[in-house]
Each structure stands twice: as C-alpha cells, then as structure tokens.
Amino acid sequence: MSARLRGYALFAGVAALALVVAPLVLPAFRLDELAKYLCFAIAALGIGLAWGQGGMLTLGQGVFFGLGGYAMAMYLKLHDADGDLPDFMVWSGVEKLPALWKPFESPVVAVVAVVAVPVAVATLLGVLVFRQRVRGAYFAILTQALAAAFGILIVGQQALTGGTNGLTNFYDFFGQDPEADSTQRTMYYVTAVVLGVLYLAARQLVKSRFGRLLVAVRDGEDRVRFLGYNPATVKTVTFAVSAGMAGIAGALFVPVVGIISPSLLDVVPSLELVVAVAVGGRYTLAGAILGAVAMNYAKTSFSEQWAGGWLYLEGALFIVVMTLAPKGAIGLYEQARDALARRRAPAAPAVPVGKEAAA
Amino acid sequence: MSGTEKDAALLEIRGLEVVFDGFRALGGVDLTVERGELRFLIGPNGAGKTTLIDVVTGLTRPAAGSVRFAGTDVAGMREHRIVRLGIGRTFQTSVVFEELSVVENLDLAAGFRRPLPTLLRQRRGVSDTVAAALDTIGLGALADRPAGVLSHGQRQWLEIGMLVAQRPRLLLLDEPVAGMSRDERDRTGELLTEIARDHTVVVVEHDMEFLRRYASQVTVLHEGRVLVEGDVAAVQADPRVQEVYLGRTKKEAA
Ligand SMILES: Nc1ncnc2c1ncn2[C@@H]1O[C@H](COP(=O)(O)OP(=O)(O)OP(=O)(O)O)[C@@H](O)[C@H]1O
Ligand SMILES: [Mg+2]
Fold first, then answer.
1. Is the CB of B50 under 6 A from ligand 1?
2. Which helix (H) or strand (E) holds B170?
3. B108 touches chain A (CB under 8 A)
4. Which ligand 1 atom sits nearest the alpha carbon of residue B92?
5. Sign of torsion, CA B16 B203 B48 B92?
6. CATH architecture assigned to B11-98+169-253
7. Are B214 and B189 within 8 A, CB to CB?
8. Which DSSP letter does residue A284 get?
9. pLDDT digit string (tens) for B183-204?
10. Where do the structural domains in chain A lie, given as residue ranges?
11. What is the pLDDT of residue A358?
C-alpha cells in the first residue's frame, strides 16, 4: 500500500532528522531545549490518545507528569545524599527520612514507580468516574481540579516535597554529571528514542481493534454499551496508558532540565499541553507531537522577545483553533492536500474526504 | 419461579410498570415472546413502545414487574451484560460509528465477546461472521467506506447487520423503516423476513402497510398497556385498535 509506505518513509525521515541532523546542527543548549520539547511531546502523545482518540478531555496530565518526575527526582536526591537526608530536608529541619521516600532509595523501584504510580492513580480515578458515567466537561473540570489540588499539596508539604522550589540540584545521574554536554546529548537521544517507540506503540494501539473501539466510544459511548462492551473499561485503560506516558515524560524531564517543581505540573502546564495538542491536531498522534514541539519552541522564542505575552497569545490561538480549525494544523494540512488533489484531477469522481483516524 | 431455561418462553414480561417523574409510561404490561417468533409491536406515539424496549435492554429501570429472558431476570442489569446474555437492539434514530468503515462497524459488533487483550491485535481481513452479515445487508460494495457516507437506509441496514453479527437470541428493532423510501422499505422487509427465519425478532413499527405485508403476530400498545394481541387480520379488524390507532395512521398516511 502506497499510503502505508509513505507513512513509514515520513517516520524514517523525521527519525533521521531528530537523531542525525539535529544533534549535528544544533548548539548544545538548543539541543537541550529540543530534548525538553520532546519530553512534552511524550505527554502530548498520551493526550492525543485520551482526548483525540478517546474523547476524554484531560486537563490534569500535569499530575501524572509530576508523579513521574518526582519519582525520578526523589531517587536522584537520595542517591546524591548518599545515606544522609536530602539537602532541602536538612534545611527544613527534618531529622528522619520520611517513610514515603524510603522505597525510592532503589533505582529499580523509582523507575518502576515512574510508570506504575501514574497508571495506578489514573486507573483508580477511571474506575471511580467512568463507571459513574462522568464525562465531557465534568471530567475535564474534575481533572483540572485534581491538578490544582496536587500543586497545592506539594507546595504545602515543604519538608516532604521541597515545596515551591521543587526538587533540583542533582549531581549524579546514573554515574554521569547531569550538567555535562555529553550527558545532555545522551539524554536527548534517550528522549527522542523513547518518544519514537511510544509513538509507534500508540499508533499500533490506534490501529488495533481496541483503537477502533476507542473511537467508537468517543463518538457513541451509549451505543457501544449496546454492543456489549463496557465503555468504562475502555476509557480507564486508555486513560491509564496516557497517564503512564505523562509519567515517563516527567521522569525524562528531570535529568533533561534538572528540576521538577509544582509550577511544572499544576493547572497552567496541564492546560498548555492540551492547547499544544489542539493546535497540532488532536485527531492524529503526529499532530499531538507536532503541536507540543512547535508550541514549546514558539513559547521559548516568544518569551525571549516578550516575556509574559505568551500566555495571551496561547489563549488566543487556542480559541481560534477550537472555533475555526478543530482538527488543528494537521487538519488544515489535510484539507489543503485534498483540495489540491481535487484541483489536479477534476475528472476523477468526487470522493468524500475520508476521516483517517490513525496517523 | 417460572421454570428452567428450557420450558420458559424466550422473553416473559409480567406486570411491567415504568414511571417518569410521576408520569406512568407503562402501566402493567404483560408480554410473552416465544422462540423463533417475529412479533410486531405497534401503537400510537407515546404508547410506550420504545420505553418497553428500553427496559428490556437495561436503559430504563422499571418501577415494578419482571422481565425474564430465557428464565433470567434482566430488569436492572447493566446494558452490556444484557447484550452478553443475547439481547440486541437498534435505536429509533440509527447510530453507527461514522469514522469507522462499514466492515469495522460490523467487526466491532461481532467481536464483543473477545477478551480485552486480544483486541490489541489489528484486524486482518474479514471474519466469516462479518462477511455473512455484510452479505445479508447487501453493503458489500461499501465495505471499506466510512459509515459516515451511508444514506439513512443504509445506516439502518448496517445497524441490523451489526446486530446479526452479534448472533443474539433476541433482536429488538425500533422503527427500522421510519424515514425510508419505498424501495428501502421493501428491501428492509425482505431483510427482516430473512433474519426472522433463524432469529427471534421484535419489531416496533408504525407503518400499517409495512405491517400488513410483513407481520404475522401483532401486539398493540396504548397508553402504556397492551390493548390487543393477535394476528394481523384480527388486530386490524378490532374496533378498539381502529379507534386508537388506525384512525391516526390514516391521517398520517394521507
Ligand atoms: N426519559 C423520559 N422522561 C420522561 N418521559 C419520558 C421519557 N421517555 C419517554 N417518556 C414518555 O413516555 C411515554 C412513552 O414514550 P415512548 O418513547 O416509549 O413512546 P413510543 O411508543 O416509542 O412513541 P413513538 O412512536 O413516538 O416512538 C411518552 O409520553 C414519552 O413522552
Ligand atoms: Mg418510540
């Protein structure tokens, strides 16, 4: 199939660009920034699944991003402390390592927790809300409230979490100096490869029967029930997968950027992720990734010129996209491509635009 | 209670009452459908036909009464569990999944008993069940088109096909020919007849001509109660039916 081949070629092209060209042409600090965007792209990929494919507008992915990030950061802090208490605890007058921290002395536990904790939290939430048929705006508000509450919780537990400052100042990342160019470069490759692998896995999921079922749940949850499926299960599984992705994103963010803090996981960053997915095009996984990279790049560039203005621009862009181009940049591209194809072959029978679900 | 699965009727409804905010939509309905039957359910607007189907399929909870399917009480069970017992339904306004292709719609319907992990595999080709359903509803030429491009009639057929692909023991069709053209009605009538050969089917229908052509056993519902039950000729001749129902349809048809 030619469309399929074209898809593989495109993926290979983007992979080559990311893994070969970018490291060659970008200065170290730009590559580091790109790595950060790719972290957000991993979280955005999860939103593409949950929202774009599954219709669950999740405004609280920052929670899962944060859980993954803190799991990683807690391990790094304990490793740096080398048997003592982490620095911020000493400053807060903590005398004994809190029980919550104890398991994170083990790197294995920490890495498992990066995925397992967000998945567990999302599963619990999903079982509670989807069974009760909470959906649409109610679900969106609920997840947003969760993000707000999580932020407040972390800020309030200064001694346990590092409070507003978050966890930072890491000196050793699995035997490497996290600030060194070589470590940063390695982290860039790791992040890019993780994103690529997760993208392929998500794409496989979308194309599978489960993915078709997910789209059906998005478009007609009640009808799906009368086909003998339980939509709550489908949604819970998908929500958990998206939470796991956000957790991985948060965990990679820690060595890439060197910090995890409440301001990175509460309401605003959660919303920014969703806006990015909407702008890129939520109905395709590629659109979600594109949106995350492009919007975060724009944010960096824009903030360098006019700090503080970005949030307004972002809000305006979101409104424009949702009202005028709900399928985002990818949707506009597809429209233009189809229009062009029709112009080129006016004699061909009119084929209604096929809404490709998989990207 | 009412015996084992073997000697019980396929569907046994006794004393069924449904109340919406004080309004009695069903006021004590008894209905028995035997295996292999093709039963038509008619009645003027608001008679409670859809409500009856809603109760049987778990969408609405009854205030009183029982619904036994092959000996199992289904009143109050969750929708997808009832489907798994073998009751399938269509809706008055057809709902197909527009983004999915015709085959994907059928495949989704046919696969409802697959365990979740096996759903993670991609569909390869078309299963026999799906192929048979596709053949029955005559949409083979549109198999790979998105269901969103189908006409109203084709959507109804796809819905019926999705039901058949689930191999249910009881099919409940809510006004399958509403809004259809004459040709489409004829085609649907044939489809029904074909399906009724090896399925138990309950059809809600308004259209008297359709009824005359394709019905044998008819139950008339009026204001939440069963008014008359019998074969088409007897029901049509019944003065009570003419009073509450036929008078209206004559007007509607005109
Ligand atoms: N969810 C509901 N809440 C309140 N009243 C309802 C509800 N559903 C149905 N009703 C009422 O119950 C009565 C029976 O409705 P039902 O839809 O079962 O009628 P019907 O026989 O299917 O009619 P039609 O031929 O118009 O489809 C109507 O008076 C309707 O207004
Ligand atoms: Mg009705």
1. yes
2. strand B170-174
3. yes
4. 27
5. positive
6. 3-Layer(aba) Sandwich (3.40)
7. yes
8. S
9. 999 999 999 999 999 899 999 9
10. 3-264
11. 43
